[in-house]
Each structure stands twice: as structure tokens, then as C-alpha cells.
Design a protein that fits this description.
Radius of gyration: 19 Å
Oligomer: single chain
Largest sheet: none
InterPro entries: DNA-bd_HTH_TetR-type_CS, Homeodomain-like_sf, HTH_TetR
Number of domains: 2
Protein name: TetR/AcrR family transcriptional regulator
Mean pLDDT: 93
Low-confidence stretches: none
Distance between the termini: 63 Å
Helix content: over 70%
Structural class: mainly alpha
Keywords: DNA-binding
Number of strands: 0
């Protein structure tokens, strides 16, 4: 039996993400993936049971990496404004430094794999963020909102700015680079909207 080659595994994972971003999940072919990695299809099956297992493993690993970056040093008991700003900074820094991860996870979240990823990594993330939001509401720092409304107001503006930065242009088609000043300005408006 052949031993696992970590360099090959990492190449396969990276290429899987690139091909899914470029062509969509439904168009990922094990044959074209193997060819792009310079390995045989049989080699892929040493590492993964099938295409579904490959996509699931890559998505869970990338989702875990993203969650760890977002929750790094995050204290769910800190003040609402401080905690939300920390979330904005962690998310923007990680996602701007890892644009492939952002594009890949967007595709995964909109697919049947999104539920698989959430079922594996979602509990810790959900419990930490729930504690943060509920604590802010109890302290009178945040207006009570449904999870969907809270998430839309708290994070949609951030993800729009990151997308504009990734595309290099804004909604007005002007060139765009996300600066600390724009990030902070947008954050201040979001916090104002969420405070009682």
C-alpha cells in the first residue's frame, strides 16, 4: 500500500478549490482534477473515497480554517462594539488575504455541501456568536433582532466591501480599494443602526 504524500494532498485540495471557483461544483471532474494536479485518477482515490468525499473534506477544512481565523482571541463577553469591530477586522483581514477561500466558501455555502460543513463546524461558531449577541442584548448594547436581521445588518456591508475590493471596483464601476478609513466609516454606521 502506498503512503500518503502530503504535498500531493495539499495540491489536490488547492486545485479543487480553484476549479470549483472557476467552473462551479457541478463541473468539477475527477479526471480533469487529476490531470491538473499531474497525478493519476487512481492516486486521488488513495486520499478520498469519491468526488463527494473530496469536496466535503476540502470544504470542512477550509470552513474550519475560516472559523478559527474569525474566532481567534474573540471574547464573546466583551462589549458589543468592541467585539463586532474585532469580527470585522478578523473577517476582512483573513478574507482579503485569502480570496480563493472566500470565493470557494461562497460556492460551498450555496450548495448542498454548505449544510455538511455547518453540521461539522457550526456548533462552536454558533454558540460563541449566540453568547456574544445575547450578552449584548442583555446589557442594552444591541437592539433585539432576529438572527437573519442581525446578520444582514451586522455583516452584509462588510462582505460587500470585501467583494468590491476583490473585484477592484465598486457598484458604480469606479476602481475601488478597501482602506481602513472606509472600513471604519462603514462599521460606525452599522453600529449606530444596531444600538438601541
Amino acid at each position: 500500500m502506498r503512503t500518503r504524500n502530503t504535498e500531493k494532498i495539499e495540491l489536490v485540495k488547492q486545485m479543487t478549490m480553484q476549479m470549483i471557483v472557476a467552473n462551479g461544483i457541478e463541473n468539477l471532474s475527477v479526471n480533469s482534477l487529476a490531470k491538473a494536479c499531474g497525478i493519476s485518477v487512481a492516486t486521488l482515490y488513495i486520499y478520498f473515497k469519491d468526488k463527494d468525499d473530496l469536496i466535503t473534506q476540502v470544504a470542512i477544512e477550509e470552513g474550519t480554517r475560516l472559523s478559527n481565523a474569525i474566532l481567534k482571541d474573540f471574547d464573546p463577553d466583551q462589549s458589543f462594539e468592541t467585539g463586532l469591530w474585532q469580527q470585522w477586522q478578523c473577517r476582512s483581514h483573513y478574507l482579503m488575504a485569502n480570496p480563493l477561500s472566500l470565493s470557494f466558501m461562497e460556492r460551498i455555502q450555496m450548495s448542498s455541501y454548505g449544510g455538511k460543513v455547518r453540521s461539522v463546524i457550526g456548533d462552536l461558531f454558533h454558540s460563541v456568536m449566540t453568547r456574544f449577541v445575547e450578552g449584548a442584548i442583555k446589557r442594552g448594547e444591541l437592539i433585539p433582532l432576529s438572527v437573519e436581521a442581525w446578520w444582514s445588518v451586522a455583516f452584509a456591508p462588510l462582505y460587500s466591501l470585501i467583494r468590491f475590493n476583490r473585484e477592484g471596483r465598486s457598484v458604480s464601476m469606479k476602481s475601488f480599494v478597501l482602506t481602513d478609513e472606509i472600513l471604519r466609516q462603514t462599521f460606525e454606521i452599522v453600529v449606530k443602526a444596531l444600538k438601541p
